[in-house]
Design brief:
Keywords: DNA-binding, Transcription, Transcription regulation. InterPro entries: GntR_C, TF_FadR/GntR_C, Tscrpt_reg_HTH_GntR, WH-like_DNA-bd_sf, WH_DNA-bd_sf. This is GntR family transcriptional regulator. Helices cover about 55% and strands about 5% of the residues. The protein is mainly α. The chain folds into 2 domains: about 60 residues, Orthogonal Bundle (Arc Repressor Mutant, subunit A); about 150 residues, Four Helix Bundle (Hemerythrin (Met), subunit A) (Up-down Bundle). The longest helix is centred in the middle third of the chain and has 25 residues. It starts with 8 loop residues before the first strand and ends in a 34-residue tail after the last helix.
């Protein structure tokens, strides 16, 4: 079967049926991926306003692909656009943060469990090398926050991709888009720093042993530990999370003039027989 080079299909090996031609990444795709990475790695603070012009200058592109990327990120809940067209990183409440942490524990724990079942040997050694690099970065001096945060993300997603379930990876990426600015904003957060009590060796060990339940437990513990570092340190929570509104206290209205407390209402009441 012969196909034109511009055809959306390519012939399969051994003369089989034609299959869809992989779509080449566009400029918009690349800009979208870069901004997503910046959000996930905490380059922008919760509540921070983003300038399209500043982003386009930083990325060395026109404003059009940036605007398209912003629209896609808005649909994923990673950015907010006000009626006046101002763009900002959403400011998450403590309640929302805890809800997303609970969902992450379930979904990412499941991904780690499936990775233990499905991971091929080449991926196992790649994950082990990433974990070793993560340990070096987190215990080196001077500590490089940006490099450690990026290594943390790459290690997590190498584990999740090893599950062999791409739709699952897509779901996890959307959760990280929401949680990244809260967990990893560059203000000295210790979740991936020298003070961190890392649990990734337990994950890698479980993957090599094909122990799905242990892999799930190790990832869930790591997710909860990093979340607790935000919620249990007041200065971090105050700078990254919106406090829950407090319910107004109930007030007791005094009786109206001319009516004694406890007496029946007379306004509009039918007269009683003598």
């Amino acid at each position: 079967m012969s196909l034109d080079k511009n055809s959306p299909f390519v012939p399969a090996p051994a003369g089989g049926p034609a299959v869809a031609r992989p779509r080449e990444a566009t400029m918009g795709d690349r800009i979208d991926a870069i901004i997503r990475g910046l959000l996930v790695d905490g380059e922008f603070a919760p509540g921070e306003k983003l300038s399209l012009r500043r982003l386009s200058d930083m990325l060395g592109v026109s404003i059009m692909p940036v605007r398209g990327a912003i629209a896609r990120l808005q649909s994923d809940g990673a950015l907010e656009v006000s009626p006046s067209k101002a763009v900002r990183v959403p400011l998450m409440s403590i309640k929302e943060f805890r809800q997303i942490t609970l969902i992450r524990a379930e979904i990412e724990g499941f991904a780690a469990e499936k990775a233990a079942d499905n991971c091929i040997k080449a991926n196992l050694y790649e994950i082990a090398e990433m974990e070793a690099r993560m340990q070096i970065l987190c215990h080196s001096w001077p500590f490089r926050t940006a490099a450690a945060v990026q290594a943390n993300r790459e290690l997590h997603f190498a584990i999740y991709r090893a599950a062999g379930l791409q739709p699952l990876v897509d779901i996890i990426e959307r959760l990280w888009l929401r949680i990244g600015p809260v967990l990893f904003h560059r203000d000295g957060h210790p979740s991936v720093g020298p003070e961190a009590k890392l649990n990734y060796r337990d994950v890698v060990k479980a993957l090599f042993e094909r122990n799905g339940s242990a892999a799930r437990a190790a990832i869930v513990e790591e997710i909860r530990r990093t979340a607790d570092l935000v919620t249990e340190v007041p200065e971090l929570a105050a700078g990254r999370l919106r406090p829950e509104p407090t319910a107004p206290e109930a007030t007791v209205q005094p009786p109206r003039a001319g009516r004694e407390a406890g007496s029946p209402a007379t306004s509009g009441a039918a007269p009683t027989a003598p």
